[in-house]
Fold this protein.
Amino acid sequence: MASGVEVSDECMEAFEALKMGKKFKYVVFKITDDHTQIVVDDAASEGDWDAFLAKLPKDDGRYALFDFDYTLNDGGQRNKILFIQWAPDAAKIKKKMLYASSVDAFKKQLPGVTVFHASELDELEKDEIRDKISAGGTK
């Protein structure tokens, strides 16, 4: 909590609902305008990767969780929960710094997630994400 921004209970409830209850496919979080809390900005029980990416603003930071299903080269099915720190190039420097300084306090409360940082949508290509988390489709 280096920035003084607290993680709201609502965030942890959404994480548990996604992880354990499979209630959500993805959850998007934001820092409140008064810079005091991280809160749920959006959540969906259904939706694909492209619908999720469309929820990330082009000019402001966000954190997000996505319940990512993928297939290995041998046909095996796998699943990982991704935590994405979104800091687009078009965001104001002060906002990027706020999101960067607040992320550790949030990540520490999310055991078992795989972390990605991105500033452009090109960095979140679905096939590239799959290759990174599955060691090229082998794990």
Notes: The first strand starts at residue 6 and ends at 7. DSSP finds four helices and six strands in the chain.
